[in-house]
Amino acid sequence: MISAGSLRHAVRLGIRGLAAHRLRSGLTALGIVLGVASVIVMLAVGEAARYQALKQLQDLGVNTIVLKSTKPTEPPAEGKGTDMFAYGLTYADLDRIRSNLPTVTSATPMREFRKNVWHQERKRELRLVSVTPDFLLQSNIPVLRGRGIETQDEAEYANVAVLGESAANELFPGRDPIGRTVMADDGIFDPIPFRVVGVTADKTLATGGAGGDAAQFSKVMFIPFATDRIRHGRDLITLKGGILNVERLDVSQVTVTVDRVENVSRTADALRSLIDQFHKQKDVQVLVPLDLLRKAEETQRMFTLILGAIAGISLVVGGIGIMNIMLATVTERTREIGIRRALGAKQRDIATQFLVETLVLSCGGGLIGVLLGIAAAVGLRKVVTIQTAVEPLSVVLAFGVSLLVGLLSGMYPARRAARLDPIDALRHS
Fold first, then answer.
1. Do 242 and 333 belong to one domain?
2. What are 12-45's pLDDT values in tens digits?
């Protein structure tokens, strides 16, 4: 058992020995510094990616199910009563969902399409998303200014609109859009005026809508679902490059809220069975955010572990560097070890001295690496706009591993120094 006094003496000797070769000690600790810093940065990037992915799914709610209309890759087989332009969810599907499934507490419809929207000389192509009053609240899309779509708007088929923040900034740069009028036009029918009543924050939903960037609720204009149904009807007609495109679509998406999380999987199976009875084209996709959430958690966990393992390799390399230098130090100080043994130092005293030197290197390098890693993570977030999230656990893990690597790297050189024969050590030149 080493006494406290002996340990303090060993620490003083260890620090003195390292201070005698400052450059070599600094270069030796550099591997640990970079290793710890890279572990913290890698885990911070992985944690931020995990947080963003999970937040998008959690915004939809773990007790919700999303039904999305998807355009079939092949046209339907021609036959009596077949509508060649129609696909996706219908109003009849919406009624069936609401009336046939007792675990469903609400079913919120939404339809989306593109229109040219302008105010004075500023014109942009936006996604028009027709929603019911509860859509913004259900999707956790905050209203920054004004108000959202209300029940009275639906009842009166009002021509009101709520702009996404990016759309508002492009149509009304430096001005408040509330109360102003925008025009929506597809180049075929007469433009329809909409009065802006609110502005929402830009938002991304993991399964929100169809199309490449459909999850982005930024360059968007929300209008009442009932108004869309009256003003535009079923037919979505667009004219681009002289080509006329016609689609018949009642509902783009239905967000179903289930009474309890335990009933989500069972309700999803019932919904698939119900939809399959009336959609032989397979033009409706059923997405369960709870399942996606679990898969995303597993994927991001593996991603973070891989990043941590890659960064951890640099810690191992740093530990090998410490072992190499300490072995060289034992050779250099063989005569000193012999003198100490001749004066009465025991093997454990010699081993403790070299082990302390190793731990001072790894501990000091670890502390510097922690500070450097946190600073780098903050810098990436502010300068390069890469999302990072430093977790206390990652800091403790990185520093703890650096100490462990240092301890393991120093054990062999310390043991070798302690077992040197005093007489042979004294003869060493």
1. no
2. 766 776 676 677 777 777 878 888 888 888 778 7
> Residue 252: beta bridge partners?
none
Give the β-pairing of 253-258 and 220-224.
unpaired
Residues 180, 326: Cα–Cα separation, whole Å: 75
**Could you report the per-residue pLDDT of 49-60, keeping only the tens digit for each?**
767 666 665 566
Residue 271 lies in a domain: no
Contacts 24+ apart (CB under 8 A), 53-59: 53/206, 53/296, 53/300, 54/293, 54/296, 54/297, 54/300, 56/204, 56/205, 56/206, 56/215, 57/206, 57/207, 57/289, 57/292, 57/293, 57/296, 58/289, 58/293, 59/139, 59/140, 59/203, 59/205, 59/206
Distant-in-sequence, close-in-space partners of 314: CB < 8 Å, separation ≥ 6: 31, 34, 35, 38, 39
Range of the domain at 307: 4-55+296-427
* Same-domain pairing of 86 and 149: yes
pTM: 0.62
Look at residue 412 and tell me if it is in a domain. yes
Q: What pLDDT is recorded for position 144?
A: 94
70 and 193 housed in the same domain: yes
